[in-house]
Specification:
The chain is α/β, with parallel strands linked by helices and 211 residues long. Helices cover 54% and strands 11% of the residues.
C-alpha cells in the first residue's frame, strides 16, 4: 500500500526582527521555488499560526519581546509539529544547542551561506513531509480498524500475536476455512498487500496493537 501523500503545499515560515536578514531570506527561498511567509516578531507569528501549517519554521534566537526560545517553548506547549531551525549569533550558540536538545531540528550560525541554509531547509521539508504522511497513514489505519467486525478484529489480534491459521481456529473454535475467509476480509478492509504490511501498519496505529 502506498502511504498517502499530503495535499497541503509546504511553506517556510520566517520569524526574525532583522528586516534586512528577513527580506534576504524571503528572496533566497522564493527564488529557489519555495512558498514563504515572514513575521517581524514572535508575538505576531503566534497570532497567525495554525495547527494545519506545513513546512518548517526558521526562527531567530534573540528578538525583542518574546524571544525565539520562548516562542519555541510556547509552540511545544501547543503541540505544534513543524520542524524548527534556529538562526543564531555566535554568543547564542549555547542557547541554540539547548533548543536542539529540546526538539528543535538544528541551528545555523550567522553569517551563514545560502547553500547551507537551503540544504538545511530541504532536509527539514523532507522530514516534515515524511512525518505528516506517517501520521496520516496511522490515522487512516485506525479508521479502517473501526470497520472490522468483532470476529475479524479477533482474527486480526491473533495474527498480530503471530498465530497461524490452525492456531487461530483452535483459539476461536472455528474452522481453518472460516479463519481464511476472515483473514482475507481483514486484508481487504485494511487495504494491505502483505501480512508484513498489515502487521506494521496496525502496530503503528493508535490502539492497534491488540486489545
Amino acid at each position: 500500500m502506498t502511504a498517502p501523500s499530503a495535499e497541503a503545499e509546504q511553506c517556510i515560515y520566517i520569524v526574525d526582527d532583522d528586516e534586512a536578514l528577513r527580506d534576504s531570506l524571503v528572496w533566497l527561498l522564493e527564488a529557489s521555488g519555495h512558498r514563504v511567509r515572514a513575521w517581524e516578531s514572535a508575538e505576531s507569528f503566534l497570532r497567525d499560526c495554525l495547527p494545519a501549517m506545513t513546512g518548517c519554521l526558521v526562527l531567530d534566537v534573540r528578538m525583542p519581546g518574546m524571544s525565539g526560545l520562548e516562542l519555541f517553548e510556547e509552540l511545544k506547549r501547543r503541540h505544534f509539529t513543524l520542524p524548527v531551525i534556529f538562526i543564531t549569533g555566535h554568543g547564542d550558540v549555547p542557547m541554540a544547542v539547548s533548543a536542539v536538545k529540546k526538539g528543535a531540528v538544528d541551528f545555523i550560525e550567522k553569517p551563514f551561506s545560502e547553500r547551507d541554509m537551503l540544504n538545511l531547509i530541504a532536509e527539514c521539508l523532507a522530514a516534515e513531509q515524511q512525518n505528516r504522511d506517517k501520521r496520516q497513514l496511522e490515522a487512516e489505519t485506525a479508521r479502517r480498524l473501526t470497520h472490522l467486525t468483532q470476529r475479524e478484529r479477533e482474527v486480526l489480534d491473533l495474527i498480530i500475536a503471530g498465530k497461524l491459521n490452525k492456531q487461530i481456529a483452535d483459539v476461536l473454535g472455528i474452522s481453518i476455512k472460516t479463519v481464511e475467509v476472515h483473514r482475507a476480509r481483514v486484508m481487504e478492509k485494511m487495504e494491505a498487500n502483505s501480512l508484513a504490511e498489515l502487521v506494521q501498519n496496525v502496530l503503528a496505529a493508535p490502539g492497534g496493537g491488540g486489545r
